Amino acid sequence: MNWIAYVDGYCERLAPGLWGEPLNSLSNLAFLVAAIAVWRQPKGRVFATLIGLVFLGSTAFHLLATRWSAAADSAFILVFVLYYAAVFPRVFFGASRKVSWLGVPVFLAFTAIVASIGGGLYLSALIGLAVFAIVLKGEDRRRFALAAGVFGVSLSFRTADHTVCGSFPTGTHFVWHLLNGLVLYLTATAATKKAASKVDAAPS
């Protein structure tokens, strides 16, 4: 496979070049802002680092538009999601570390099922956020309900990017970045606040 091959998947990009997607590139700053905000929270260092990697991967992809940068973009998002799946049972339900890490294969299996009916990682993540909001209570429920709502809107903008090129040449993918910065902040904050209230919580 040619890892430096050109990838054009968004309305805003019309040709190869470092500045072919200015809005898509600059809107990644939302992830950097989220990473900095989470870093300042107790128990926020791991989540902040993972969000920072999302910022780097997405920025590289929208600046360079190559296969390797696309792979890095997807990989860093997946790492964040899988880490969250791994620590969620421990942070919110007090499961042991060994049991909690079973969240990874469970989520991957669920994603495979969703993919088999036409969905994928993002749809399974949206469903997961909605389920978290249902099974939790109080402030935790409100945080995940808000995150699920914002992510649902964000996903609609990501999908719309492929259909509005004729009437809106810049596309809507940049809104996906802006809203997802908020989603990552909300989900990370939900975990860090819960972890900080416990003696031996997973995030750090």
UniProtKB/TrEMBL annotation:
The keyword Transmembrane applies. Keywords: Membrane, Transmembrane, Transmembrane helix. The chain crosses the membrane at residues 46-64, 76-95, 107-136. The keyword Transmembrane helix applies. This is Ceramidase. The lineage of its organism: Bacteria, Bacillati, Actinomycetota, Actinomycetes, Pseudonocardiales.
